[in-house]
Amino acid sequence: MSFSKKWRRMKLGLKTVLGWSKQGYFIPYRYAASDLQAGHRPVYRSVAEICRAAEDRFQGHLDALSEYADDLNGFHGTKPPAPRFEQDWFPRLDGAMAYALVRRFKPGRIIEVGSGHSTRFMARALADEGLATEITAIDPAPRADIRALPGVAIINKPVQQVDLSIFDQLGAGDVLFIDSSHILMPGTDVDLLFNHVMPSLPDGVLVHIHDITLPDDYPVLWDWRNYNEQQGVVPMITGGGYDLEWSSHYVASRMKDAVGQSVASSLHKPDSAYETSIWLRKRR
């Protein structure tokens, strides 16, 4: 970790521990030194088994990219607000699959928590497919300018300040797209989405969650971020309430030959990029 990141963490940590202002979380735990450290945590075997069983479905989604090959290859060297692959926030497999799945499944409504490059890919998919679907983007501070995108309604608030009844508008085939704080703590956006919104979703809603590297642990380089969101995703996958539609990380790490033989092989991916989209379909 760079000195600037260490210094920033120290300042935020002192403010939090001293009670000046809450800038994060400190959880006192006597046996924390005994916890398995990054790089030494085991693979989630039950998730790996479900991913292996879903390989045919993953392959089908990879093959379907060929339907949109010309469009996808046109997302190189583009300028905002067009989607582009020359960025590492929402790279190759993530962007291509968001574009393709929206075109294939034709959702009537998309609600996105956290926005940016993903919004650009999905808005373009809707336009190219000739759909009138509106995207509602809930984000207090979008990292990419999405104001010029047609059909996008922006709510500049954290989801904690939004009336959760907005999610009641989602029906079968619609999309709940999550790329938020990645912190599962009481009262966080992830807590509200995972434990209040998602249990009430009807059958058939597609749920996307970003920065998920299951069945593996988070990358060692991300350890300083202290993400714990995917620990809440494990029981979704293994508990039987969702079908696993797609996992960018699994495909990129375990199905490399399939990726190399697909349209994805012609799409740019920065060396620094991690492909981490996971798509689930709600079922009861």
Automatic annotation (TrEMBL):
Coiled coil: none
GO biological processes: methylation
Pfam families: Methyltransf_24 (PF13578)
GO molecular function: methyltransferase activity
Top-level lineage group: Bacteria
UniProt entry keywords in alphabetical sequence: Methyltransferase, Transferase
Entry annotated with the keyword Transferase: yes
Name of the protein this chain belongs to: Methyltransferase family protein
Organism (species): Aestuariispira insulae
